[in-house]
Amino acid sequence: MRVIISGAGQVGYGIAERLAMENNEVTVIDSNPELVQRVRDTLDARGVHGHGSHPDVLAQAGAREADMLIAVTQVDEVNMTACQVAHSIFNIPTRIARIRAQSYLKSEWSDLFARDHLPIDVIISPEVEVGDLILQRMAYPGALDLVSFDDDQVLVITVAVTEDCAIIDTPLLQLTELFPNLEATVMGVRRNGEMIALKSNDFLVPGDEAIVAVGRSQVNRVLAMFGKDAPFPSKVVIGGAGNIGQYVARKLEELGEGISVRLIENNRDTAQRAAESLKDAIVVYGDGLHEDIMHEVGIQNAQMYLGLTNDDETNILSSVLASELGGATTIALVNQPQYPRFAKRLGVDAFLNPRTVTVSKILRHVRRGRIRGVYTLYNGDAELLEAEALETSPLVGKPLKEFDFGTGVRIGAIIRGRKMIVPTGQTRVEAGDLVIVFALADSVRKVEQMFRVSIDFF
Predict the structure, then answer these.
(1) Chain-centre distance of CA 63, in angstroms?
(2) What is the mean pLDDT of residues 350-366?
(3) b/e sequence 272-303, b meaning 16+ C-beta within 10 Å
(4) CB–CB of 437/387 below 8 Å?
């Protein structure tokens, strides 16, 4: 596939890196020559200096032969114009744009992005994507991590295994006997710093972090098995009243279930705008790193603290302070991938990387029809893959027990139509099934090949 990416910032670079690794022809455009040079020096991709909305620059990037344009600059209007030029002049079949301003995305203006107006096939809004994921995480505070797939039927959660876990020292194959109609598969664990793909005769031990594929309707049941079930928080403090903080607060207000929401914002103008736009939430002007401000918003009584500022260090440290002052469950936005390694030791419960969320969303559309999503776990030690089984896949048509996956792969769920199937050795994958797979890093390439239309695989 020939792909042009307009914008070489964190998101654009991340997309280019992933697509280049998959042997796509990638060209990246940016008006910053240093970012273009970084692409040329570090990726198997072309770099073009210029504005991605200019026809001559797009032509230089190969727009006449391109299959897809992904416009992810920091400016919405540049992204929209790039898609318009790609359609009107070069007839690029698929156009994806990152749009951050929520005013463009209101339902009453939905016709704006129709083919006859601004022809954009897929709109990515970072604030919405990250905000929705935060709300999902809030619904299941007992989970360390959570991945939601496009089919919306299966979640993959990471759960800490403690002494009160009901399934310690129980072979995994016996779970269905102990818990009838259980829609869940324990796919792997992180044990003593090592990632392990589990088999049906393995079992969990205290100290593990278990990776579990589970039907959405049974997430609370599974968390209860691990002794981690907890209600949706009724008192929430949000550090940061920017776009993401306001989005989450507004969605919590819309739930209408008596949830108390208070925000802390250290920029006076931003705090004022947030106070004017929110109905019931209370916005406090101040620094979330100060104990008196934390006490003013009632952190001592809060069940959850969300660090959602634009600064990683502030999100981490304010989460630590919130935990110490009140014992709230904490979630922090962190852009730097190395930070969670040490921040978890400080007591931060969970992390979200906005760039990873946005890149994953875009890659789902790029890979449509084969690998729909790839989600990195524990800094690349393992991955989750959501894939569609095609007729040429070697998985199709025979029992799973007859296929040699090796020691690093575990299938967690099969989705057929609107039904989730918990796989066993007798299960047969059919063409068109969606398959959720857990794979250690050195087994990922093998899994990807299983789902490609490729005679070479055989």
Answers:
(1) 29
(2) 77
(3) ebbbeebeebbbbbeebbeeebbeebebeebb
(4) yes
